[in-house]
Fold:
Amino acid sequence: MMTIMVMKKRVYLAGAAVVLVAATVLSATLSSVSANAQSRPAPAQEVKIDNFSFGPATLTVAAGTTVTWTNRDDIPHNVVSTADVFKSKVVDTDEKFSYTFTKPGTFPYFCSIHPKMTGKVVVQ
Ligand SMILES: [Cu+2]
Structure:
């Protein structure tokens, strides 16, 4: 009786090991898929506004990319190009502003409500 119970436990453990291996292989496959997606030029990129800062502060994109700023802060901000290339309205919490960069160059910007908040988009 004891022997059978021990054997059943072994079979159960072997089954668990197979599931574990399958999960590992699956997650390895999934991470290689997402690595491939990252190596392609992304058609859209995001900048998060939070805690009085733009993140990432410098975003590098390919020409033709639409950049979307999302305000995750609990106070309103805006996104104003230093060289007057683009200018958002006031972006409230969880609202977004998007701009499509067609020409290569460096585009610094800031929040005109809090001018110490700065960032830039580098378009290649
Ligand atoms: Cu601001």
Observations:
- Confidence is low (pLDDT under 50) at residues 9-37.
- The chain has two domains: 1-40, 44-123.
- DSSP finds one helix and eight strands in the chain.
- Residues 77, 111, 113-114, 117 surround copper (II) ion (CB under 6 Å).
